[in-house]
Design a protein that fits this description.
Layout (H helix, E strand, L loop, with lengths): L7 E6 L5 H13 L4 E7 L2 H10 L5 E4 L11 E5 L2 E2 L3 H12 L9 E3 L3 H11 L7 E5 L9 H7 L3 E5 L21 H10 L3 E5 L6 E5 L4 E2 L1 H15 L4 E5 L5 H8 L3 E5 L3 H11 L3 E4 L3 E4 L9 H13 L7 H6 L5 E2 L3 E4 L2 H14 L6 E3 L4 E5 L2 E7 L5 E8 L2 H18 L8
Parallel strand pairs: 1-2, 1-3, 2-6, 7-8, 7-9, 12-13, 12-14
Antiparallel strand pairs: 3-4, 4-5, 9-10, 10-11, 14-15, 16-21, 17-21, 18-19, 19-20, 20-21
Helix pairs in contact: 7-8, 12-13
Length: 423
């Protein structure tokens, strides 16, 4: 930061039991270099990003384990408007190893930007009718903000697990896994709500279910969001990650936009948005980045508000379930995790990519290996957040889906014959 002429950053932390003590230690370390800290306290990650803009620090740190289990923790970093990723993280690690720090005396001040954040969304997003929605915060830190925002924009909100509890006693705080949406689905059905909203542990990943309990995957939501954004910003660039449906490219082009597939990872996508001045981006794990009426960072609360606004404004007065059912879709799997330590995963992927027989498919190595066929695609890549490989498959029908799965199983087991794959 100091090397870039930046001397102040905001710091927030999630509700994990280890987060507050880690945040205090982090702030002590930062102020010992001469940097000044604005302590935001316990807030969702998007509120830290908002504070970077609202307080003009353009730099911030969030102590969070994100969607991972309760015993995980980490730091999300933004310096001078740029999210650290890849080589920059390794460079930071080398600096830590060599102890190459400045010495100085910074100060810590505390401020609360949550009300300003809520007011900013309330001013921006105005649904045309009241929608009844169940909100499952999974005992994550978004429970302090998300229900309040949706009430402020006029929703009838039913709260589920919105008390912050860093042990996550009710279910794992990752809406990308269907298992974690069971309580939400049950509550939506029993209350007759039109919509169910779920978020992860730090409030930057969004999950959605309809009134019948159908999971509406992030790439399906992106079809709606893309059309909506391109209506107002024709010709805009829209980004989506390698785990997303192949339907998006055609939808975006048909709506007059410029589609671009990019690697997975919120840091990577955020920086790609800056590079290409994209109006919208999304990651299949549930990160949505709006840059048309918002700041371009991933924010589950803002994305939920925009979704509700979009659904409430339907010119044909369709219910959310009716509207979702008309989205083109294919047969697909959720993300499939295959546990593997990172060094082994790196060696595995290098060998797999070098020897992969795509059998006439269109190969992309933008992030791992994705092979697109006329009737579907498959993907295997290294997870950014867990010691594991991530797989996903999509096809026009179940038969093609099984064919593509089997092709990937055979190729992966050639690299590691003992690999057990339950696809």
């Amino acid at each position: 930061m100091l090397a870039q002429g930046v001397s102040e950053l905001v710091v927030g932390h999630d509700g994990r039991l280890s987060s507050q003590p880690l945040a205090k230690a982090f702030m002590r370390g930062v102020t010992n270099t001469g940097c000044h800290v604005v302590d935001l306290g316990q807030v969702p990650t998007p509120v830290v990003y908002f504070a970077c803009e609202h307080l003009n620090t353009h730099s911030g740190a969030m102590i969070t384990g994100s969607h991972n289990p309760a015993n995980y923790n980490g730091i999300k970093l933004v310096i001078a408007g740029k999210t650290l990723e890849g080589d920059e993280v390794h460079a930071l690690y080398r600096r830590i190893k060599t102890g190459a720090f400045e010495i100085g005396r910074g100060n810590i001040s505390a401020t609360d930007v949550t009300d300003a954040y809520i007011q900013r969304i309330k001013t921006e997003v105005k649904p045309e009718r009241k929608i009844k929605v169940v909100v499952d915060c999974g005992n994550g830190v978004a429970g302090k903000v998300l229900p309040k925002v949706l009430k402020e924009i006029g929703c009838h909100v039913i709260e589920l697990y919105c008390e912050v509890d860093g042990r996550f006693p009710n279910h794992h705080p990752n809406p990308g896994e269907p298992e974690n949406l069971k309580s939400l689905i049950s509550e939506v059905k029993s209350t007759g709500a039109e919509l169910g909203i779920a978020v992860d542990g730090d409030g930057d990943r969004l999950g959605v279910v309809d009134t019948q309990g159908n999971i509406i995957w992030p790439d399906q939501l992106m079809i709606l969001f893309s059309r909506d954004v391109l209506e107002k910003s024709p010709g805009a660039t829209i980004l989506y990650d390698v785990k997303s449906t192949s339907l998006l490219e055609g939808v975006i082009r048909f709506a007059g936009g410029e589609p671009m597939m990019v690697p997975s990872g919120h840091s990577i996508i955020k920086n790609k948005m800056r590079q290409y001045n994209a109006a919208l981006a999304a990651e299949m794990s549930g990160h949505f980045f709006f840059n048309d009426r918002w700041y371009g960072f991933d924010d589950a609360t803002y994305a939920a508000a925009r979704l509700i606004e979009l659904l409430a404004a339907d010119p044909m007065s369709r219910t959310p379930t009716q509207l979702f059912s008309e989205i083109s879709q294919r047969v697909s799997t959720p993300e499939i995790m295959v546990n593997m330590p990172y060094p082994e995963a790196k060696r595995f992927m290098t060998t797999l990519i070098s020897n992969f027989n795509a059998d006439g498919g269109d190969v992309s190595t933008v992030d791992g290996i994705r092979v697109d066929y006329a009737d579907g695609w498959g993907l295997v890549r290294i997870s950014n957040t867990l010691p594991a490989l991530t797989l996903r498959f999509e096809a026009t029908n179940d038969v093609e889906l099984e064919r593509i799965k089997q092709l990937f199983v055979e190729q992966m087991q050639q690299v590691k014959p003992t690999l057990t794959l339950k696809l």
